[in-house]
User: Fold these one by one.
Assistant:
Number 1:
Amino acid sequence: MKKMISKAMAIVVAAMCMVAGVGALTAGATTINVVEGSKYEYTAYVEEISDTEIALVLRTTVNPGFTSLGYAVEFDPTYFKTIGEGRNIKTEVTPRKGMIASLGGDHLVSLQILNRDDITDNIEIRFYFETIKTPSNGKAEFKTCVFSYWSQTENLENSYSTPDYFEYDTVTEAKTGVEYIVGDVDNDKDVDQGDAYKTLSLTQKLTNAYGTVKTPTTRVNEELTRWLSVCPGLPCAEAADSDTDGYIEENDAYNIQLYTSQIALGQIGDIEDVGAKRLVSTTYEC
Ligand SMILES: [Ca+2]
Ligand SMILES: [Ca+2]
């Protein structure tokens, strides 16, 4: 297995986390449950923001309550460069707050949350990276760990986790075209009030599932089958992203509502006029 870190850096991380070994190689989103003496769990996965930008997301899945939580992430500087980090707590979205202090070098970044009382919300931390080049074998490795964990509920002080590898498959699957109309979430070739309601319902379900008010279309597409049960007929996430900002959120539903209202009032008669936005038939490569 390819080692992504130098020996010197490995020593820094081991000292940081007070452990001797590393976790097993994992692929795709993985649940990590290795904080000493704690029930705390998180999952790690990559969101592709653009062709040259990704976010490594560390999302809490089980949170007994913590006053302090510190994540550290190692990355391979051959392939990635840090851009910044951000976190979402419940519906609060604060992406790209800026760089955080490096713990031990140019390819180790960290974030620590401190609070007077236990935080029990499931949180999402995003570490943003610019892709410098794609690994020749199509796989990139990150390593994550909780380097500090304090919990009043669990009566833990400065507990920690074993570093765990996270493997990101950079090879995308063969592309196929999906034709859709922006706003036509049920794919009946018409954009109407029903689509607005369905988009609003989908947005609420996405928020409940992922804990974000704005859910990236890339993420919804990754689990499209799951969301078809909530929004039957959905050809792809982009159909619900009526303001085409790359996220599904309430504004998309209001956008469709506005369009259908304007049609009803005779203010517009063209599917391509929705305020400043356009509802267009598009072929999506997924
Ligand atoms: Ca429709
Ligand atoms: Ca949107």
Number 2:
Amino acid sequence: MKPSDAKLNELARQLTELQKRAKALGVFANDRELLECPGCGLLEDVTSTGLLITCRADALGEDTGLRFVQLADNIFRCPSCAQRVEATDELEQTRKKRKARK
Ligand SMILES: [Zn+2]
């Protein structure tokens, strides 16, 4: 193995480790769509550093500290007003479009 290969392998190992730690810290893994409460407007967002937060439409990017509670696969409860929020495909598409604009 060339010295550069060994370096690459080490980097790959470190990256895997980092991803594991990141997930444990609350980084959004992109394994479902972001939520938006139709009742009170609380919405999920992902910060530039990849952390999953919730914020209000009038203060985007400002973490409220609240987190949606998962009840079932696509069903969540709003931590603010307790409304049931269903993750829909339509919402997913909207978010994807938003992401594509970056
Ligand atoms: Zn709500």
Number 3:
Amino acid sequence: MKRVQAKPLGTLSRRTNRATDEKVESRPQEQKTSEEAVFDVQDLSVFYGDFRAVRNVTLAVSQRNITALIGPSGCGKTTVLRCFNRMNDLVDTARIEGNILYHGVDLYESRVDPVEVRRRVGMVFQKPNPFPKSIYDNVSFGPKIAGFKGSMDDLVEEALTKAALWDEVKSRLKESGMSLSGGQQQRLCIARAIAVQPDVILMDEPCSALDPIATGHIEDLMQDLKNDYTIIIVTHNMQQAARVSDMTAFFTAEVNEKQDRRTGVLVEFDHTERMFTNPSDERTENYVTGRFG
Ligand SMILES: Nc1ncnc2c1ncn2[C@@H]1O[C@H](COP(=O)(O)OP(=O)(O)O)[C@@H](O)[C@H]1O
Ligand SMILES: [Mg+2]
């Protein structure tokens, strides 16, 4: 399959962007870490109006790895996830402090085009949300908008194959995406994300609306996908994080400085195996052993 013709790297490239260049050069240490990381999150806080929903998050997301964000409800997992493709820009009151570098480029730098960011950093939501269109059109929609010029049939087949859905739908491509089962719909949404040749796929509790068998399919699929993509998954299911992820970030919520609401904090970020067997923070241990949550 031909790759979707991405727009020139212009807006996201450090080399063609003097403002970003200067910024990065003045921080040689960050530049070093960012060369290895897809995302380098540095002291990130996210606010909704005056309310600081999550504070002081520092972590790095490695390429072709699965990174899980776990923690109790309200600790800011979705909020952090939505920063990675600037989805929070769509919330009027949201703003960030700190930095997120994407391949070494400041993701929130003014010249970065959020639409291009969202093409490179796709998202799969909790509730499968296919468009009310045919299976084929669900997958072809993004590439068409991006100006894809190659064989759309080939592209649709490859995206559906990668999403482990092709065999189940190849004889009914003209049927509505809504006619599929929940698990199939979620794989269709993954195919739709893949079709625009992203670099990263964000998944916000992608299995929470699915039965255990459909969940197993998605988890297996994630293992295949990580050969080609970097994946960040939010899950409230600790066993799922333990099964699928390479790295885990555990968040909790603490009463904030104003003592009125709870603010999310990153407690610990480490290799998943270590997080579940030998965490260094007692709060992580209490959570993963089920004593808190
Ligand atoms: N659009 C929003 N406007 C205001 N507050 C929000 C918004 N989205 C989330 N929050 C608040 O931010 C905090 C973190 O929410 P969220 O990121 O959804 O947590 P989680 O995904 O871990 O359950 C919560 O206190 C929530 O009420
Ligand atoms: Mg959430």
Number 4:
Amino acid sequence: MNSKTAKSKFATTDCVRARGQQYEMNRRNTPVGMCGRSPKGCTGAVRLLTVIVLVALSSIEIASAQDAQNAKEALLLVGARVMDPGNERLLDGRDVLIVDGRIVEVSGSAAANAPQGARRLDLAGLTLIPGLIDLHTHLLLHPYDEASWNDQVLRESLELRTIRATAAARATLEAGFTTIRDLGTEGAGFADVALRDATEQGIVAGPRIIAVTRALVATGCYGPSGFDPRWDVPIGAQVADGVDGVRRAVRQQIAAGADWIKVYADYRRRPADPATPTFSQAELDAIVDEARSAGLQVAAHATTDAAIRRAVHAGVATIEHGTDASDDVLALMRSNGVVLCPTLAASEAMARYSGWTKGDPDHPRITSAKAMFKRALASRVTIACGSDAGVFAHGDNVRELELMVEYGMSAGQALRSATSLAAKVLGREKDLGKLEAGFLADLVAIKGDPLSDPSALRDVVVVIKGGSIAIDRR
Ligand SMILES: [Zn+2]
């Protein structure tokens, strides 16, 4: 509403109402209030106060209108090389117009079409790409060389873990990752849902968070483990068994705020034992069926060939890790449209924690990760960026893309695995992962060319999330 409308509005009915309110205020406050005299005897004073109130009210109205205007503020990004909608090449001479959090135009004439008063951001010399997406993080974990996983689950308070996770969320956003699928709180209950909501409400800075809450494990198939069986040790996920039991657990997690369901399809039964399948085919089928009934997808932790096969047959959307996937099972994943998140950065971090340093001969974990990735590339299964950040430092998520390229993927394909392709996995291919009109304005300005070198993604200069400038280091 402009000031003219506000004035005419106050000149009629609201004026009368305001006078009445002022009279009421005076009457109630008579002993200590603004005017101790009777209404009749202080007409002049009431008029003066009325004017003051009206001026104050009209300026509140104008301020509210201004706020509404700011919320819909247009943002014009000029001077950057811009990623094309296919995330395949960089285009010169394109400006990007953002209105109300969405990209409305990417063209040479966007500047001319910008509404008057649009904020202009000069990104000359920078490369503008869609915000990055990591499909496998744990905001509630921090690197295992700082504290072992067991100690984090058993000794750290939920409060400390949650507060630390807010810093992890900020670090993730600062690294240009504007969306994450956070795959389990690892004993921290439903803290991911609270963090997701706090981020959405602008209480803390962070990416868009797709939450899975506690994750599902079968009895005796997760950690902390290796204790005397007399002790009832807390487990880092929700234990559920049997078709009815897993259905109930899925329902509980969805009711508590889960956006996806995460299941551990295999795990070691005792410390140092090799992983074996955990849930039966019937249990996995029930988990996926129950999740789908609520419109949710399922991600399966699976490293063994047998568990991956079961999970694919059950209908999960993604396989996490996939370490020992055979050519047969990779072909099965491909024909079923199941996506692989290889978590190469986590394997490298675990090798480091056991004493390996870069330049040493490959640690067995790295040998195994490289071999798996080579088989996966050859199988042409869809590979998406899922780093397992939390095992290593939040904000270092780009390590996954660097390793993908080091292990044989093109830089362009690696970038797509963390943008358009990851958005498709999330069912958000219509509004995330592309720099195109109609998409949410989640954008990152970097130095260098990520289509030739993934490490260029480490030079983050500006991060925009939903049309708001989150980071500006120009
Ligand atoms: Zn993980």
